[in-house]
Write a structure and sequence with these properties.
This protein has 266 residues and is an all-alpha fold. 79% of the residues lie in helices and 0% in strands. Helix 11 (195-207) packs parallel to helix 13 (229-241). The longest helix is centred in the first third of the chain and has 33 residues, at 2-34.
Amino acid sequence: MKKLFLCLPLLCWCFCANAQRYQQLVKRGLEQMQADSLLQAEATFREALEVDPLIKSNALLFQYIGSIQERRGEHQRALESYAQGLNISSTTVSLLLCRASLYMRLDNHDRALADYTEALNLEPNQTEALFFRAWLYSQRRDYKRARVDYDRLIKLEPMNEKARLGLAILNDKDRRPREAMEQMDALVHLFPRHASLYLVRGGMFLSRKQYELALVDMNHAIELEPENPDCYVSRSQLYKAMKKKKQAKQDAQTAIRLGADPSFLY
């Protein structure tokens, strides 16, 4: 018993020293990440993991390591790191969001949907998860569920332009043309300097064969962003529908000069 009491101060000192060393390494690793010293940052985080392999905050270290691996294009290794972090703490929402985002980029929509759903089970008002799950549902033509997520997100963030635009596009696909157009009119009113909104609304007019209204919107988009190749791609497609081949060709050439993919034009 006497030996145990003698060892207690030493044990406390070792614990405090390890904790301090761990914190120092994490801080250094974050600084190296900010400086884009990615290899050094990963090595530093792994050193911290060795100092205290059982602490729950290691879940975040695996998140940082996964993020570094993503930036290096090592996608499979990044997924493995995120999984290791979630094995330590399955309720860390930031880890779920990181993995879901990577799954999205890898076109693994089923896995992304599962992670966003789990994140929302933990945090029902998580706005990033709501937006991307709504988009994924829309891609599956599950418009009812997509609309629920968009509506919830807009209630949380009434000025969320992407959510409002996503809902308008969803309604247009879901055979609610009047509702979709009303929502686009509201968006253009709220964000009158955003060329992309005029292109979307112009595209809706084009699909309805309201060519003159479409042309007004696309001309205005070009006035706002004259160096945006998407504007010329859209107007070229409109001119084709209007049987104005010369103007369509001119816009196609301008779009390509500004960096557009020719496959979208011919």
